[in-house]
Amino acid sequence: MEPLIVLVVVTLAILVAGAAGINRLRPWPVALRSGVAAMFILTGSVHFVFMRDEIIRMVPPALPYPDLIVTITGVLEWAGAIGLLCRPTVAWAAGGLSLLLIAMFPANVFIALEGLATSPEDALIPRTLMQIVFLSATLAILIFYLRHRPVGKQKH
Fold it and tell me: What pTM did the predictor assign?
């Protein structure tokens, strides 16, 4: 639930700052990028501290080296978050994070079906709904920035 709260609170805070006159923060994609980046900084961080053991247990047993997988996904989440904050890499970061969310979804199903959930929001339906929100946010960013990418100089 914390990642969803971070996504919503940071996005709303940036929208309010934009409405209050900080022009660089005014467009909704900037606010959403900021909220998603903050969320992935949080979720990437728990791959290393606080919940590392729980996240390692989420890796389905068919996959080898669960501790390495958790480390790699944590680093990818941080890299994606940083990429969202850098205009030239926004589309790549949003696309990569979208793929990462899809690739990690089976772990969410695994913990729900195996009874490893530690809180009510870890049950299959709430977890799936949150993943849909997160994926919708990354895809909205990706689509916006693909549609509004700078056009290169054309040769005449």
Answer: 0.90
